[in-house]
Specification:
With about 240 residues, this protein is of the alpha+beta class. About 35% of the residues lie in helices and about 30% in strands. Strands 1, 4, 5, 6, 7, 8, 9 and 10 form an eight-stranded antiparallel sheet that branches. Strands 11-2-3-12-13 form a five-stranded antiparallel sheet, with helices on one face.
Length: about 240
C-alpha cells in the first residue's frame, strides 16, 4: 500500500512531550454486526486537555476503528489507514477482506513501536462486517502490533477494565444492535464513574459519546440527538 508513516528511531527518546491522550473505547458484537462507542475526553497528565475528541471513525464502508493512547498520533494513524484502504480498493477494484484490514492495521501499530518506547503509545480497536460470512468481527491490539480477535466484546483505554466489567454482566449471544447501542453508552458511563480520564455524557455542555454501528447495510454513526436521549436516560437511571 502506497502511503507510509515515518517514525523516529528509538535513540531519540529524550524530552517526551506531555501529549493529550484519548481514553475509553469499546466494541460489542451483535446479531446484526458490531457496535462501537467512545467517550470524548482527552487528558494530559491530570488535566482535561480536550472535551470533544472524536475517537471512533469509519475505516471504510464496512469497518470502523476506534483509538486510545496518544491522541494526535492515533488520529494520524487512522487517517493513513483510511487512505491506504481507499488506495487498495482503487488499485484492485475490490475491498480488502476484513481480516486483511485487521492484519494491515496490526502492521501499522507495529511500525510505531519506536514511538511507544518513548511513551507515545497508540492502541486501536477495530471492527467490521464480513460481507462473505455475513457476520460481525472485532479485534484488539497490543503495543507491539499483536492482533487478537474477540468473540463477544472488547474495550481499551484507561477505563477499559470498568467498561469490560459492565459489558460482561449484560452481554448475550442474541444481543440486538439497539440493545448494544444502549449498553455501549452504559459501559462508558460505568467507566467514567471510576476513571477520571474517561468522560461520561455531559448533559449541561451537550457532550455525548460517539456511537457507530457496522452491519450488512454498512457503517452508520448514530445521530447525536438519539445518543443524547439515550445518554440522558442512562444517567438519570443510575443509582
Amino acid at each position: 500500500m502506497a502511503p507510509t508513516w515515518d517514525v523516529p528511531s528509538m535513540a531519540s527518546s529524550a524530552g517526551v512531550p506531555d501529549a493529550p491522550e484519548g481514553t475509553t473505547v469499546l466494541a460489542v458484537r451483535t446479531t446484526d454486526g458490531v457496535v462501537m462507542a467512545g467517550d470524548r475526553r482527552a487528558t494530559a497528565g491530570n488535566i482535561i486537555a480536550h472535551r470533544r475528541v472524536q475517537k471512533v471513525y469509519s475505516a471504510d464502508d464496512f469497518s470502523a476503528v476506534a483509538i486510545s493512547g496518544t491522541a494526535g498520533l492515533a488520529v494520524e494513524l487512522i487517517k493513513l489507514f483510511q487512505t491506504e484502504l481507499e488506495h487498495y480498493e482503487k488499485l484492485e477494484g475490490t475491498r480488502l477482506s476484513l481480516e486483511g484490514k485487521a492484519n494491515h492495521l496490526a502492521s501499522m501499530v507495529r511500525n510505531q513501536l519506536p514511538l511507544a518506547f518513548q511513551g507515545l503509545v497508540v492502541i486501536p480497536l477495530f471492527s467490521g462486517y464480513d460481507e462473505r460470512a455475513s457476520t460481525g468481527h472485532l479485534y484488539t491490539y497490543d503495543v507491539v502490533g499483536g492482533r487478537y480477535e474477540e468473540q463477544d466484546y472488547a474495550t481499551t483505554g484507561s477505563g477499559g477494565m470498568e467498561a469490560s466489567a459492565f459489558l460482561k454482566g449484560v452481554y448475550r449471544d442474541d444481543l440486538t444492535t439497539e440493545e448494544a447501542v444502549r449498553f455501549g453508552i452504559e459501559g462508558l458511563v460505568a467507566a467514567a464513574e471510576e476513571d477520571t480520564a474517561t468522560g461520561g455524557p455531559d448533559l449541561r455542555r451537550g457532550i455525548y459519546p460517539t456511537v457507530v454501528t457496522v452491519t450488512a447495510s454498512g457503517f452508520r454513526e448514530i445521530p447525536e440527538e438519539e445518543v443524547a436521549s439515550l445518554a440522558a436516560e442512562v444517567v438519570e437511571g443510575r443509582p
